[in-house]
Specification:
The protein is an alpha/beta fold and 244 residues long. Helices cover 40% and strands 16% of the residues. The structure holds pyridoxal-5'-phosphate. Pyridoxal-5'-phosphate binds next to strand 8 and helix 9.
């Protein structure tokens, strides 16, 4: 679907268009609509935009910076938003892991053993179980973060997870390369799906059911290839202003 949006459109109008496209992709893939969650990526949009999204029926958000969401999280309750599920989908520096474990419902960008250890300590301190998704780097050009699918650190992390009882693995996520070539995008999503199958049989005691893949420009392909969570920003909120 085209990610072009018009400034005068309401969130509800954009949401209806995204929902139509999700439903159509689910039909093509012969999947039930409920098998895909819609995550609204609200980064660089104000808390008021999140409140508008909640009013339109959004229950799950993605934010990519700890500091940014820390501010917004304080603005949400006065806007009537008290129970939104918000996941971190941006790279997490380990010195911010304690704050991240505190303010986010889940960390979807776990990308090192060191970070896992820091998050475990933070979650233990908070006396909570923190859902995590492991980020996989499948394209060399664009993705700067994520664990290599064939690397030793991914295996080491999965081997160590039983020793990190406050982290609850939920699955895998990836960011497709920036390309106009749908075949390249599709191949990336297929790789993540194959990795999910391989890891699920190699680690039967771990949960790999979440396959977080697909953004505004490629979520329909992602759904066709098995995505269980599409992370959509621009197609829902309109274009983001450049960071100052
Ligand atoms: C910004 C971002 C998105 C949403 O991107 P859009 O193209 O605006 O839909 C999804 N996933 C991650 C990890 C992001 O950083």
């Amino acid at each position: 679907m085209s990610s072009h949006t018009h400034p005068t459109e309401t969130f509800a109008t954009r949401l209806a268009r995204v929902e139509d496209a999700i439903a159509a992709a689910c039909r093509r893939a012969d999947r039930p609509r409920e098998s895909v969650r819609l995550m609204a990526v609200s980064k660089m949009h104000p808390a008021s935009a999140m409140a508008e999204a909640v009013a339109a029926g959004i229950t799950l958000f993605g934010e990519n910076r700890v500091q940014e969401f820390l501010h917004k999280s304080q603005e949400l309750p006065p806007l009537g938003v008290t129970n939104a599920e918000v996941h971190l989908i941006g790279h997490l520096q380990s010195n911010k892991s304690a704050k991240a474990a505190e303010i986010f419902s889940a960390i979807d960008t776990l990308d090192s053993l060191h970070l896992a250890q820091r998050l475990e300590n933070a979650a233990a301190e908070l006396n909570k179980t923190l859902p995590v998704v492991v980020e996989i780097k499948l394209s060399d050009e664009t993705a700067k973060t994520g664990l290599h699918p064939a690397g030793g650190e991914l295996r080491e992390l999965l081997d160590r997870l039983p020793d990190l009882p406050h982290l609850k693995l939920r699955g895998l996520m990836t960011i497709a390369p920036l390309t106009q070539d749908d075949a390249v995008t599709r191949a990336c999503f297929q790789s993540l799906h194959r990795l999910q199958d391989a890891l699920a049989s190699a680690y039967p005691h771990l949960d790999f059911s979440e396959l977080s893949m697909g953004m505004s420009g490629d979520f329909e392909i992602a759904i066709e290839e098995g995505s269980t969570c599409v992370r959509i920003g621009t197609a829902l909120f309109g274009p983001r202003e450049a960071r100052p």
